[in-house]
Structures are given as structure tokens and as C-alpha cells.
Amino acid sequence: MSSDATKRFGERLLAIYTGAVLTKLIEIGYQVGLFEGSRAGPATSAELADRLRLKERYVREWLGAMAVSGFIGAVKGLPDQLRKGIRVLDIGCGTGHAMNVLAREFPSSMFTGYDIAEDAIALAREEANELALSNSTFSVVDVTDIPDDPKFNLITAFDAIHDQKAPDAVLRSANRALATGGTFLMIDFKFSSRVEENIGNPFAPMYYGISLMHCMPVSLAVGGQGLGTVWGEQTARRMLAEAGFGNVVVLDTPRPQNYMFVASH
Questions:
Q1: Is-contact 175 202, C-beta < 8 A?
Q2: Number of neighbours of residue 173 by Cβ within 10 angstroms
Q3: What's the CA dihedral at 124, 126, 132, 133 to 10 degrees?
Q4: Which of 194, 152, 150, 155 is nearest to 171 (CA)?
Q5: Which domains occur in the chain, in start order?
Q6: How far is CA 261 from CA 9, 57, 146, 156, 162, in A?
Q7: Could you tell me the pLDDT band of residue 74, with boundaries at 50, 70 and 90?
Q8: Is the pLDDT of residue 69 over 70?
Q9: Residues 84-98: what's their mean pLDDT?
Q10: Can you list the pairs that 148-152 forms with residues at least 24 positions away whose Cβ atoms lie under 8 Å?
């Protein structure tokens, strides 16, 4: 094996291990309330530890990992906007837990979740009621036709666009529903649209398999396009542009198998 090939292999292993460790640290952060505690306002490690009744030394090390990973605050200014109060929509919200957590942490903002699955929306509403939330609502909606009055300041889609029957129509609908100056935040899988460029990607075989057995059938079964899990960055950029998003920035996430697409008009 050449020195360049050895180096590339080492870099791939490092990315895998880093993603695994960060995934665990993110889980810990949610379990003990570190993310929620951080949203309450700026704080030193000691102040955050006092706020959550945790040991400062552990909090300091966790914060160090979050800072060097770039995980804290990827969309500049968004936490401040949420504190002041904006309208947020999650496309394909499932059981709505993400929106309910955000609604609890940012009571001045309004959170909406749309999904086509009636059972999932029922569970989302049930959780919102249990948490006594007045700023999160959920509806069964075909997201190819999102109501656009009033418009939303932030629209999110977490690993949801590639499963849609008509993903191009969903993206156009999201663009229409987005307020001027608003942000469309899409998380999806980090692959090329070209098979040959995915050779050597340690995640690619698994996600092609997931696509074949789940994501493609979900769309094709209802007469959809069958975009698939590995639709890739090039196709995503093209479809976002065709939907009317003139400004698209692609960012890495702590999970090496995901991208974050930050788009606006």
C-alpha cells in the first residue's frame, strides 16, 4: 500500500472514530441537559455546571469537545432569533419530539410539525399536551403543498427529503413558505451523486443497502421518484437551486455520514 493510500485510510478511520465519539457526547449532552442548559444564556463551564448541578471538570471537557468539533451554533444568530420569537416548521416531523423540545426551550417562538402519518402526528400532539406546550402544533399535511400564509422564518427537514414521493415539489413548496430572510435547514446523508466517487467511503455500502430496502421503496410504492438515500450533494444542490434557493451553503456535521444544507432565497 502506498504512503498516500495509507494516509487516506488513516484519515477515514479517524473520521469514523471521531463521529462515534461525538455521537456519544451528543447523547450525553441531551441526557444530562447540557444543550438545554446552554440555551439559557452564555456561561462559563463553572456557571453551566452550577446551573445544572454537575461537576465543573466534566462540563469543561464536554464543552471543549463541542467547541473544537464546531457543533455549537452552525447557523449564526439562530439561537438569538429563537429566543426573540420566530415561526418554525419541521417537514416530515414524525412524532414531533424535536419540535417539542425546541418549543419547551424557546417559548417565544412558534413551532409547527407536518407529516403525512396520522399515527405519528397523534403521538406528537400527545407529547405536546404532556409537556403543557402552547407553542407547538402538529398537523397531517401533504408537504408538497405547504400553507404559505403566514410564512415561516425557519424550515427544517431532517433526513426526510429523499424519502418523499415528489422531493422537487416539496422543496418548491418549502421555498414558497419561507419568509424573506428566512432559512431552510436540511440534514441529509454525505455522499456524492456519482457512484464512482463513493467508492472507498466506508458508509456507502450500508446506505446503498438501506436505500434499496427502505428509502427507495417508501417513495416508489406510492408512485414516487425513488430518489434514494444516496442522492448525493450534487443532486441536492441542483434540486435546491431549481426550487428557488439562490444561496446554498453545505456544512459538515459531527456525524461524518451527514451534511447540513443551509439555504435561503
A1: no
A2: 22
A3: 20
A4: 155
A5: 3-69 (1.10.10), 78-264 (3.40.50.150)
A6: 27, 34, 20, 10, 13
A7: low
A8: no
A9: 95
A10: 148/173, 148/176, 148/177, 150/87, 151/87, 151/177, 151/178, 151/179, 151/180, 151/182, 152/87, 152/88, 152/89, 152/112, 152/177, 152/178, 152/179, 152/182
